[in-house]
């Protein structure tokens, strides 16, 4: 298995725009989707797939993750871009997806909010929001 490559949020957005079969899976928690926001793919005629990698509040790994991917219409042929807050959970989810038969897993580096800045805030130095990509409150 080749591993899960990293792309920037802008590269992921361009790939989602250029490939009708490409999918964006946001693996953050329901609380994060509700309070921080979600990527908005409506301009591409798509919706982000929301499947938590870890279940809030216990943060245990979602044992049904591959099944949820299948239910969302993801196939072994799909190019799937995984995004989380900063890129760590999405990498783990992509690795697990590959082991479960979804070989085209790509990690969105820096995730939705990116790393913390000098003041300890996210969303300003890297990630989907900082790159100015479309997003919305849920």
From TrEMBL:
SUPFAM superfamilies: Rhodanese/Cell cycle control phosphatase. It comes from Sabulicella glaciei. It comes from the Bacteria. The lineage of its organism: Bacteria, Pseudomonadati, Pseudomonadota, Alphaproteobacteria, Acetobacterales. Residues 18-124 form the Rhodanese domain. This is Rhodanese-like domain-containing protein.
């Amino acid at each position: 298995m080749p591993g899960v490559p990293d792309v920037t949020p802008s590269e992921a957005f361009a790939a989602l725009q250029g490939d009708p079969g490409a999918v964006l899976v946001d693996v953050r928690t329901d609380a994060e989707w509700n309070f921080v926001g979600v990527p908005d793919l409506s301009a591409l005629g798509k919706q982000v797939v929301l499947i938590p990698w870890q279940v809030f509040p216990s943060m245990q790994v979602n044992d049904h993750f591959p099944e949820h991917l299948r239910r969302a219409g993801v196939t072994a042929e799909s190019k799937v871009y995984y995004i989380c807050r900063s890129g760590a959970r999405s990498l783990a989810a992509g690795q697990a997806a590959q082991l479960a038969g979804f070989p085209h897993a790509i990690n969105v580096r820096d995730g939705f909010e990116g790393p913390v800045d000098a003041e300890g805030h996210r969303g300003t130095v890297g990630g989907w929001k900082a790159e100015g990509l479309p997003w919305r409150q849920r």
